[in-house]
TrEMBL record:
GO biological process, one term: L-arginine biosynthetic process via ornithine
Gene Ontology cellular-component annotations: cytosol
Pfam families: ASL_C2 (PF14698), Lyase_1 (PF00206)
Gene: argH
Source organism per UniProt: Lentibacillus salicampi
Keyword Cytoplasm: yes
Domain of life: Bacteria
Name of this chain's protein: Argininosuccinate lyase
Residue intervals of the Argininosuccinate lyase C-terminal domain: 372-449
Family label: Belongs to the lyase 1 family. Argininosuccinate lyase subfamily.
InterPro entries in UniProt: Arg_succ_lyase_C, Argininosuccinate_lyase, Fumarase/histidase_N, Fumarate_lyase_fam, Fumarate_lyase_N, L-Aspartase-like
Keywords for this protein: Amino-acid biosynthesis, Arginine biosynthesis, Cytoplasm, Lyase
Length: 507
């Protein structure tokens, strides 16, 4: 490169750190994220680490009081409104500079036995655990609505589909209960991710811990972490905590997106299962009759963006060295935050959409009554009443249905005993031991559902029991959330109590 070319670059970029483009691409966006998302956990870590240094006799109480007074002068809201100052590489150094200005060089002792490495990871974990609790809370809100809707639609008969074709009669309550159970597994994965996230890196320092005799357990407890990461290298390098969160969020988005596809289909005029309440639809600019289900469409699209943001996290982790490295830090973390915020908002919106929709129960029942989807029970009935193997009974019923379909008579209204007997005689040589009343029962969707009372079935009694179990599970999940929030609140209280004790120290 010519010296002239180099000089032109330096004239534009500057001759000192940071260069103009590096500042604009990396440092300024990272600062803007940190000043909003990292300042509070950073201050908590300052307090907790200082308390530990004092209690372990590493920092003198008089010095510590001066440092606490300096920390107390930091105005969090003022920090959030600041612009990036390239005099400091990042928010950490800006805050450190302020503390040294306020308390003198002794404030530098706040960094004894710690590094930006273990501190940064702790901040990310503290940030992520709060977001996980918020997301679990949003998920539980939707789950509660699904349980209520399951009870409301326990008798709402509809056709269930397999391979996008009419399969068997069931109820909308049965479908919503399935959604509940799928959502429960999503919650369990988020809870598991929380347990992985809520582990303390503090005390790992840069990579190898410290020669100072510090108390890692005390800092862990003061910061509300329920465990410590034992190995110091793992503490600063193991990014799987956010990877586990990303996969949990990603799968939750995929799971919910499948029901969005169903809802968009069921809301068409041709299907006519339900009508959305007015706040959740949008009119056409040209077609007066249109009521577009845009709320569900947007949720489907946003779920895909949640999937994409979570995949970005996993992709940025891929093929990175196992060590402290920026790939898993400031550039990556916001993708996870955005994904979680969107998913939580979708849960709240979907709950409102479903709780206010108007279901066309009559149309769904009529469709089920007319559909060949009931004939599985007819085959079962032939097994019970005619001593036939299921495969032979299946053959008879299938032959009778195919004949009607070929004649374009695709309704149970055309399904009579004489027609069924004709096919039975053709296949077995004998008429069936079956009455018109038994045939009518076998083709009745209400009867179909009523006798499917095994665990997991759609019968009213079985779904009632399922609802009772899901309500109890909801209580347990709510208690888990309450417990985790309580641990964090208790940790904050411990810091406050120890600081008060320190500040009232009698010299």
């Amino acid at each position: 490169m010519s010296s002239l070319h180099r000089q032109k670059i330096l004239d534009t970029e500057g001759k000192n750190f940071p260069s103009k483009t590096y500042k604009e691409l990396v440092l300024e966006p990272a600062y803007n994220q940190a000043k909003v998302n990292s300042i509070r956990p950073m201050l908590q870590i300052h307090y907790a680490h200082l308390i530990m240094l004092v209690e372990e006799g590493i920092v003198d109480k008089d010095e510590a009081i001066k440092i606490v007074n300096a920390i107390n002068k930091i105005d969090v809201e003022d920090v959030k409104n600041r612009n990036y100052d390239s005099s400091y590489e990042d928010l950490f150094f800006e805050i450190e500079h302020f503390l040294i200005e306020q308390a003198g060089e002794i404030a530098g002792n706040l960094h004894i036995a710690r590094s930006r490495n273990d501190m940064g990871i702790a901040i990310y974990r503290m940030n992520l655990r709060d977001r996980l609790l918020n997301l679990v809370e949003a998920t539980l809100h939707l789950r509660r609505s699904l349980i209520e809707l399951t009870e409301e639609h326990i008798d709402t008969i509809m056709i269930g589909y397999t391979h996008t074709q009419q399969a068997q009669p069931t109820t909308l309550g049965h479908y919503l209960n399935a959604m509940t159970d799928l959502l429960t597994r999503d919650i369990n994965r988020l809870m598991s991710a929380y347990n992985t996230v809520n582990r303390s890196s503090m005390g790992a320092a840069a990579l190898t811990t410290s020669g100072f005799s510090i108390n890692r357990k005390l800092v862990q407890e003061l910061l509300g972490f329920e465990e410590r990461i034992d190995n110091a290298w793992d503490a600063v390098a193991g990014a799987d905590y956010i990877g586990e969160t990303a996969t949990s969020v990603q799968l939750a988005a995929i799971d919910l997106g499948r029901s969005m596809q169903d809802f968009l289909l069921w809301g068409t005029q041709e299907y006519g299962a339900f009508k959305l309440y007015e706040p959740y639809v949008q009119i056409s600019s040209i077609m007066p009759q249109k009521q577009n289900p845009v709320s569900i469409e947007h949720m489907r699209g946003l779920l895909s963006s949640v999937l994409g943001d979570a995949q970005t996290v996993l992709t940025m982790m891929h093929n990175t060295p196992f060590g402290d490295i920026v790939d898993t830090e400031d550039d990556m973390q916001p993708y996870m935050w955005h994904a979680m915020e969107k998913l939580g908002s979708i849960y709240y919106l979907l709950s409102s959409v479903l709780m206010t929709m108007e279901v066309n129960k009559e149309k769904l029942l009529k469709r089920a009554q007319e559909s060949f989807a009931n004939v599985t029970e007819l085959a079962d009935t032939l097994v019970r009443t005619n001593d036939l193997s299921f495969r032979k009974a299946h053959e008879i019923v299938s032959s009778a249905v195919k004949d009607l379909v070929a004649k374009e008579k695709e309704s149970l209204e055309e399904f009579h005993l004489d027609h069924l007997n004709a096919h039975a005689e053709k296949i077995t040589g004998n008429k069936l031991n079956l009455t018109e009343e038994e045939l009518e029962d076998a083709l009745d969707p209400e009867h179909f559902i009523k006798i499917r009372s095994l665990e997991g079935g759609p019968s009213k009694d079985r779904v009632k029991k399922a609802i009772e179990e899901r309500v109890q599970q909801q209580n347990d999940l709510d208690n888990w959330l309450k417990e985790k929030k309580g641990i964090l609140e208790s940790a904050n209280g411990m810091i406050d109590e120890r600081l008060k004790r320190m500040m009232s120290y009698d010299k």
